[in-house]
């Protein structure tokens, strides 16, 4: 498993505003989208391309285009939905599938309550979007599910991770073709399973629930 922490002052700046408890939902949503565009740049570094011949006004040349089958973007509902728009801006021809997951706030165990994905993922490059990697339970379950459905190449893009959760995902997915791109790795998890300093509950902050 490869882990890449995007290190860029613009990301750190936007993350700081995102973390601020005073940042209201509309601004939070815009910032998640902007951050996603920056993280998608890193996250799509390995996107599969194929050569294509074109003619410029000056000369014929060979360029590249996104290869078929098109990549599959999988936002984890709810919070991952906030990242989708930023991602499809960079990969407009990608297909989008959905996984709905909720973490039980007492046991911290994830359950999957919705799934809408192509039947066969065997030759699809998958990009999973979820802003928060806390205990890592949700991301591990999501990626394992994609592998069960035939996926072999998965990149997860998260805004924040806790070191404990990142280690748990690495252990669970050891030896698999997985890349994780992160905006930042925070200090730790607290006793309630929240990332510290983190940004609180990403879903609640995106969608105005408390
Ligand atoms: O690493 P974990 O400990 O599993 O926690 C992370 C999960 O928690 C959040 O979702 P949540 O369950 O709050 O659902 P929501 O997006 O609907 O708010 C987040 O978006 C992740 O999916
Ligand atoms: O800090 C956390 C942990 C899990 N889910 C969130 O939205 N935030
Ligand atoms: Mg939530």
From TrEMBL:
Enzyme category, top tier: transferase
Sorted alphabetically, the Gene Ontology cellular component annotations on this record are: cytoplasm
Known EC number: 2.4.2.9
Instruction: Please name the GO terms of the biological process aspect recorded for this protein, alphabetically.
Output: UMP salvage; uracil salvage
Span of domain Phosphoribosyltransferase = 5-209
Q: How is its activity regulated?
A: Allosterically activated by GTP.
Protein name per its UniProtKB record: Uracil phosphoribosyltransferase
């Amino acid at each position: 498993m490869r882990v890449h922490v995007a290190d860029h002052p613009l990301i750190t700046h936007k993350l700081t505003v995102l973390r601020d408890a005073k940042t209201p939902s509309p601004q939070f949503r815009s910032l998640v989208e902007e951050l996603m565009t920056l993280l998608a740049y890193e996250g799509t570094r390995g996107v599969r391309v194929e050569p294509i011949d074109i003619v410029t006004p000056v000369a014929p040349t060979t360029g590249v285009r996104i290869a078929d089958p098109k990549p599959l973007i999988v936002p984890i509902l709810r919070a991952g939905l906030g990242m989708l728009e930023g991602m499809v801006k960079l990969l407009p021809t990608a297909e989008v599938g959905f996984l709905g997951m909720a973490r039980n706030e007492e046991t911290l165990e994830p359950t999957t309550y919705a799934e809408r994905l192509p039947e066969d993922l065997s030759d699809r490059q998958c990009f999973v979007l979820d802003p928060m990697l806390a205990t890592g339970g949700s991301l591990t379950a999501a990626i394992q599910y994609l592998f069960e459905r035939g996926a072999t190449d998965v990149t997860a893009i998260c805004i924040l991770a806790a070191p404990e959760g990142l280690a748990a995902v690495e252990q669970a997915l050891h030896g698999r073709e997985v890349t994780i791109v992160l905006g930042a790795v925070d200090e730790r998890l607290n006793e309630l399973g929240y990332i510290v300093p983190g940004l609180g509950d990403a879903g609640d902050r995106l969608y105005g629930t408390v």
